[in-house]
Design brief:
The chain is of the alpha+beta class. It folds into two domains: 83 residues, Roll (Ubiquitin-like (UB roll)); 75 residues, [2Fe-2S]-binding domain (DNA polymerase, domain 1). It is 20% helix and 20% strand.
Length: 197
């Protein structure tokens, strides 16, 4: 059936080619990424329910089209990234190299409380926008179904997409608009939905 078997994994991580030999089947993509210093993706629930470990996995499908998927790196075996491009939150931007518009909007509109879940939420939105550059507000909200904020217990985002600039203005209107760690009210700046306190 198979003439040969290879335990070599070849992938690109944030644009850099990575070749790994003898990849063990129990090693997850998240474990690998954190071992090479890419610690933006977090281990939250370890069951694929919170989205703190979300990264973008890109590959070419049978038709030759590039497909981008938001993946829970805590569940994905490292070997599943073979022949793929992995993009982490560090790979889309930083304060040193310049932030991606999604990161910028999260920062500008106070879309983060403790920050633990933020990289996963950013990567889920980034991946969604790569596949759908002109979304509706409802599509943006639906794209966040796999991400939870541990400060509030939920992610109930109010997203507005600016079609002309293809960037996202994120106004986080979490169901509980109070950070339990600092009792600091987190009110968004533009839509007024969260002015319920």
């Amino acid at each position: 059936m198979f003439d040969s078997y290879s335990s070599t994994v070849v992938m690109f991580v944030n644009g850099k080619k990575v070749v790994l030999e003898d990849v063990q089947p129990e090693v997850t993509l998240l474990t690998f990424l954190r071992s090479i210093g890419l610690t933006g993706s977090k281990l939250g629930c370890g069951e694929g329910g919170c989205g703190a470990c979300t990264v973008m996995l890109s590959h070419v499908d049978e038709s030759g089209s590039i497909v981008h998927r938001a993946v829970n790196a805590c569940l994905a075996p490292l070997a599943s990234a073979d022949s793929c491009a992995v993009t982490t939150v560090e790979g889309i931007g930083s304060t040193a190299t310049g932030m991606h518009p999604v990161q910028e909007r999260f920062s500008k509109f106070h879309g983060s409380q403790c920050g633990f879940c933020t990289p996963g939420i950013v990567m889920a939105m980034y991946t969604f926008l790569r596949n759908n550059p002109r979304p509706t507000a409802r599509e943006c909200e639906d794209a966040m179904d796999g991400n939870l904020c541990r400060c509030t217990g939920t992610w109930c985002g109010c997203m507005h997409a600016h079609e002309a600039t293809r960037c996202v203005c994120v106004c986080v209107c979490v169901c509980v608009c109070v950070c339990v760690y600092c009792v600091l009210c987190v009110r968004c700046c533009c839509c007024g939905v969260c002015l319920l306190l």
